[in-house]
Automatic annotation (TrEMBL), chain B:
Residues 10-249, 260-503 form the ABC transporter domain. Coiled coil: none annotated. This is Sugar ABC transporter ATP-binding protein. CDD domains: ABC_Carb_Monos_I, ABC_Carb_Monos_II. It comes from Cohnella cellulosilytica. InterPro entries: AAA+_ATPase (IPR003593), ABC_carbohydrate_import_ATPase (IPR050107), ABC_transporter-like_ATP-bd (IPR003439), ABC_transporter-like_CS (IPR017871), P-loop_NTPase (IPR027417). Keywords: ATP-binding, Cell membrane, Membrane, Nucleotide-binding, Repeat, Sugar transport, Translocase, Transport.
UniProtKB/TrEMBL annotation, chains C, D:
It is found in: Cell membrane. Its main location: membrane. Keywords: Cell membrane, Membrane, Transmembrane, Transmembrane helix. InterPro entries: ABC_transp_permease (IPR001851). It comes from Cohnella cellulosilytica. It is a multi-pass membrane protein. Pfam families: BPD_transp_2. This is ABC transporter permease. The chain crosses the membrane at residues 12-29, 41-61, 68-86, 92-113, 120-137, 171-192, 224-245, 251-270, 277-294, 306-323.
Amino acid sequence: ACGQKEESNAGSSSPASQSPSETAPESASAEPSPSADIEALKGKRIALVMRFNTGTFSAQYVDGVKKQAAKYGGEVTVLASENDLAKMAANLDSAVNQKFDGILVDHGDVGALTNGLNKAKEAGIPIVAFDSGLNDFEGITNLAQNDQLLAEYTLEKLAEEAGGKGNIVKVWVAGFPPMESRQIAYKAFTEKYTDIKEIAAFGDATNPQLDTQNRMEAVLKQYPNKGDITAVWAAWDEFAKGASNAIKQAGRDEIKVYGIDLSDEDLKMIQDPASPWVASAAVDPTSIGTVQVRYLYQKFHGDETDAVVQLEPVFVHRDSLPADKVIATDELSQYVDGWGSSDLGNTDYLTALEQSTGAQ
Amino acid sequence: MTALDQASVLHMRNISKSFAGIRALNNVDFNVRGGEIHALLGANGAGKSTLMKILSGAYESDEGAIEVAGNVCVFRSPADSKRAGIHCVYQEVDTSLVGHLSVAENIFLDRLAASGQKLWLRWGEIYEEAGRLLKRIGLTLSPRTLVRDLTLSEKQLVLIARLYAEKAKFVILDEPTAPLSLEEADKLFGIMEELKAAGIGVIFISHRLPEVFRICDRITVMRDGERVLTENKTDIDVSGVVRAMLGRSFEEEYPKLETTRGEPVLEVRGLESGRRVRGVDLDVRRGEIVAVVGLVGAGKTELSRVLFGADQADKGTVSVAGKPADLSSPAGAVKSGIALVPEERRKEGILVRESVLHNLSAPLLKTVSRFGFLSGKGERGYADKQITDLGIKTPAVTQITAYLSGGNQQKVAIGKWIGTEADVYLFDEPTKGVDVGAKSDIFRIIGRLAQEGKGILYLTCEFAEALGLADRILVMCDGAIVKSFNRGEATQEELLYYASAGREEFA
Amino acid sequence: MKNRLLPFTFKYGALIFIGLVILFFSLTNEYFFTYNNITDILRSISIVTFVAIGVTISLAVDGFDLSVGATVSLSTVVTATMMVWYEMPLVVVLVVPLVVGALVGLLNALLIVKIRIPDLLATLAVMYIVNGIHKTYTKGYSIYGNMPMPDGSTAPGVMDKSFLWIGQGKLLGVPFPVILMLLAVVGAHVFFKYTRWGRQMIITGGNEEAARLSGLKVKRIRTFAYVASGVFAAIGGILFASRIGSGQIDAGAPMLMESVAAVFVGYSVFAAGRPNVVGTFFGAVLMGVLVNGLTMMNVQYYTNDMIKGAVLVLALAVTFIHLNRRKTG
Amino acid sequence: MKNRLLPFTFKYGALIFIGLVILFFSLTNEYFFTYNNITDILRSISIVTFVAIGVTISLAVDGFDLSVGATVSLSTVVTATMMVWYEMPLVVVLVVPLVVGALVGLLNALLIVKIRIPDLLATLAVMYIVNGIHKTYTKGYSIYGNMPMPDGSTAPGVMDKSFLWIGQGKLLGVPFPVILMLLAVVGAHVFFKYTRWGRQMIITGGNEEAARLSGLKVKRIRTFAYVASGVFAAIGGILFASRIGSGQIDAGAPMLMESVAAVFVGYSVFAAGRPNVVGTFFGAVLMGVLVNGLTMMNVQYYTNDMIKGAVLVLALAVTFIHLNRRKTG
Ligand SMILES: Nc1ncnc2c1ncn2[C@@H]1O[C@H](COP(=O)(O)OP(=O)(O)OP(=O)(O)O)[C@@H](O)[C@H]1O
Ligand SMILES: Nc1ncnc2c1ncn2[C@@H]1O[C@H](COP(=O)(O)OP(=O)(O)OP(=O)(O)O)[C@@H](O)[C@H]1O
Ligand SMILES: [Mg+2]
Ligand SMILES: [Mg+2]
């Protein structure tokens, strides 16, 4: 199956350019019995080791993983860690002990997982990670959402809509790798736009939404005049929700909110014309799950996969959304390019596998 | 006093102490010699316990000094006092016991607490030695028993066993005999004599004057925080002591009020509960005071608890005023018209952390409230009345009950039931720790209740009280009623004979 | 003079302290002591105050309800699903979570009063159970209007306008949740201070055995206390949902510690040294004032906790140094 | 027969229960009862067990230390910064967090023993303070090798290999943290059972007044207990850092509830009804087994909490129904 490998490698970086008809015969010729090849991919037991597991974003991501695995006839076990890296390490160990066929890692950490990942490698279990910073780890495919880019998209839009000047409020908290990456972009942004001033900054991850709402209210009282605050930049959708609620309830419709991440719930708020939240940048959580499963199946198939796969973020602004109806993230692809429809990581034999499983 | 005596004298000079501005001790001067038994007497709240707590280092005095063998000592903590050889058995036994630890560990509590001992413990030796000490004071208990499973008198004896485990020069016994039966008290007196013979000075506090005169060498009387006299026993008599205590002459008496006896108000048939209540039948008529006497462990307390629904009966029927009583819980018993003044007041009778007011009104919140709202006036009025009637010594009705003297706490435990509209009153050793004056007050109140047509069941191991007070006396032995006497029929000796199941030594 | 001053500072020390904190923020920021900001603070503490009243009640009977946070989470998602999934009328939307809260209280009471598991242990276990239930019920999703359902369809309902008014509306210029909160505080205070049942709770909390032997139905009283605690937590959950307009998973988790902190600061108020409703309210006010004031001062967010803790210590120390002195003095 | 069986099931009920849970998982999943999985479970509970021993000690003197979770967080970031920011030798890396833990314990003791703030109140306040300190110290960032510093430079150090071995290495095929944990459990058990100091703690916890009247220096003992609690939490923090190879902000936050749960289940073991170290260990084992076993059974992750809670209730009920029956019976 060496020819196969090359093909799927190419496929992973530019899936759209590839037509199924080109690869199908090739894989057929390389493999004497394609159906046997596909059969071998069925009935896989997959462990999904997660660091965070609450909120709509996580729920949608898990959904994406499970649905895609189900399409391939696989079964997913979720090992949730409640944001406790030690528990996550234990969960990874447990996954190895249980001899899963493959392991998916979500928001891991090099230090915490190195040992477990080595054990998994020894046991010959393929691993695909998402947003875990495991780039130096050989043999693992890393999906990464470009957090700096996510931040840049929203900050640039903020600057543009504010006319390059104004007073902004930042809602952000350190301590989480994605947050810290977003802060790098924010720092660059403040250096670039010297006329944009940060007048308040806060953030609390333990009760993100309500706490943000309460604190935003305090800031609004502190700057009571229209024009005192131009915009709010929220580095996390939970923060954006809280800030938007506070602003909306205070009737300060001149303040705009820019957030990061996008769940169905967030999308609904962005579409609401009365909501100050106008834009967000995100990678579709469902498609992250989908793509991650595809890469794992490539590994099952024995393909040589890329060490790093970048998931390009999508910028969603209210202006690009329909005003006449409320849509969910699975319809978003009709309005925003690059959302949800990602064919990244797909191959012919996976399509065939999907069809063969669906037929059963 | 010879020089030798001087060397073994403990002297408290000019001791004063106030609590939140209220003076509990005023310029008290008190001394004890080695090798004597010195009684410290006084009405409830006179300041006896406070004085002793200062001596044992539990409290610090505001003024005054303590000298041991001529040296001035400063006791900032119980450890200091212990180091000077002073050991104390406190009035509130539960304050010096650890419930979930074994008897052995409680006996050796001071030793475990002492510094400079070996780090490692040998449990085998500890249990063995504890067993020996228990035998010596005549307690048949396994040293491994948990203290929380003991009765009050057993707890008191464990504390006395603790004295043996220590090397004391002076020993304070704050009302040790209150929870003890006569038999157990006798054993204690034997121990006190032994201590005395060993040259140890014993300070003995008690409200039972006969025993005081039996065992003591000298007597000090306190009144309202001051020392009023110190005499050799031989130089004073009971009435002199009582006069000094109360500030007036007083004859200990059993005020017998005339009552008319009505129909039976409490009927108990075939009551059984565990090993402690075995086939009890009894009747109490309206206006009648029935005493149940028995030695310690006879099952009196158990009987009263079963009759109050605090423990469950295995068998038998109980009716009040002709109707079957609901004894599934104390709440049911109260509703059926039964009230109980329990024996172990600090744990069961009062709420130590609440005010006197809240304690007194606890069982009759319904009476002092309207549509669920409490009437502050009604509640206070009731409390004030009980405080006057029973002579409860408290600076204010809002005082926290924990800060009352032992005897006054007991009065609160009684007072709270007086106002309820119960038909039957159960009193379990209500006069323990109560001074002679207040004792008469309690008897008078009991008599008045009888006059009002209530039925009284009075459980006691003080035969004299039963003889003085009761219309009828039932003798209890090993959980069963073995004999019944009408008023005037029985003598102390007869009661003792039946209470001890006719055993030779008491006959 | 000194003798009269001391008890005064002692009794009102904690209140004076809260006053000083408010004064400080008022002086450093002109917008702090404005009507709008003060009502905002009160509104921001309204949820915690309800939960904290429940905790106060359980502490009054000498219990401790660790499950209140989980109950808030459960009732907030139940409230939201009533509207979003089932399109129920407002009264059902409000009654169902209250019933659910009462049921959680009953479960606690069953374990504590019947099976006699110590309160901390029992309510901790119930906390886990209720947390699990609310996540299982929503399959880990937050609840909001017209949300996509796991089966692909769209939820039929939205968050009701009149419901949202409960958490966001105003009556005579005062935020409605603030009115509710003040009513609850006054009501609970009157209950404890002036009614027979309140007194019975306090007595039960003082010494259960002595209360039982005073003829009180201590089991019923304790059961009632846990049910009340559950219901107050459920009210907190309802307010939560109506304040943020959705049913968030795990929304109540931080409420436990916050409400406990409020209750504990309340121990200091009037030098009570024990749980009391008015104290709890002022405790919640102190915490709310701190969050608001510190945000206005724009101190680094990560130092907030430290300041909060230090202020807590000071507030407590004011009382307990004295309480201590009085006891031994 | 029946009479002899009852006390037996009573005393060993909780242990039998744990055994049944293990049996159940072993039967349903072939991978559960393997050497690797069992040692993994033990390793996964080692951190919580250390923290829980600290909680047990504070409970033994009738205190309650709510600050342990925060102390874990603080010591884990201190440990990491010692290596990453300051490149200290291993011994300093280990000693500094222990000292920090002891200082937190001293602060608790100061408030509780000197100022006499009730323990729950004092340690809650300290929890906030310590949480604030550890975030302020790291400016809210997690600590990892060669991390970018807020000033733009790069941190000089990495997490030391020999340090990481503490949390991740094996000795004779047994994970090193498991060995440490077992030593600590046995040591603490022996301390409480066979040494004078241990008994003094238990006496103090059983009845502080009695302890004081017996001449015990209760203040010193309580101080010692809180310091020990802080130090054990700090050990938990060190293990945490070495297990995950970085210093995470707020890493200890979930430890409080988890360790408290372990301690409480421990009340049931041997029907002690009180805090005891061996029970705490088995409590931690039960929790670890449940988490591991439930994930293996592939129950929905959001139902885990529910099952955990239900099992907790069962484990507790086994003991307390009996304990209760014995008392009234
Ligand atoms: N801790 C305290 N706080 C306030 N008042 C106290 C305290 N301890 C004792 N008192 C008061 O001091 C006075 C003396 O009490 P004490 O206990 O010494 O009396 P007593 O002579 O031992 O009485 P009894 O025979 O009833 O035991 C009482 O009025 C009591 O209310
Ligand atoms: N909770 C308990 N556990 C074990 N034994 C008990 C318990 N309560 C009582 N007993 C036993 O019952 C006996 C005491 O019974 P009870 O208290 O009813 O007798 P009493 O006649 O009232 O004695 P006292 O004069 O001491 O009050 C004691 O000998 C004790 O051994
Ligand atoms: Mg006294
Ligand atoms: Mg008795």
